[in-house]
Amino acid sequence: MSERFSEGFYKAIFEGCSDAIYVIDPQSSRILDANTRAWTDLGMSRERLLQHSVISLQQGVENEEHWAQIAEMIYSCHPQAFTFIGRHYHQHGTYFPVEVYTSVIEFEGQPLFLSIARNLDRTSSQREAFRTKDARLTYALNEAVDGLWDWTIDTGEVFFSPQLKRMLGYLPHEMEPTLETWSEAVHDSDRGRVMAALDEHLSGRDDSYSAEYQMRKRDGSYIWVRDRGRVCQRDEAGNPLRVVGMVHDITRSKGLEDQLREQASHDHLTGLLNRRAGYIHFSKQLSYALRYNQSLTVCLIDLDHFKNINDSFGHLAGDSVLKHFAGLMNITLRKSDSLMRWGGEEFLLLLPNTEVASAVKLIGQLKEKLADNPAELESGEQISYTFSAGLACCPLHSQALDALIKCADDALYTAKGSGRDTILVSDESGIEQPGLF
Ligand SMILES: Nc1nc2c(ncn2[C@@H]2O[C@H](COP(=O)(O)OP(=O)(O)OP(=O)(O)O)[C@@H](O)[C@H]2O)c(=O)[nH]1
Question: Are 216 and 302 part of one and the same domain?
Answer without folding.
Answer: no
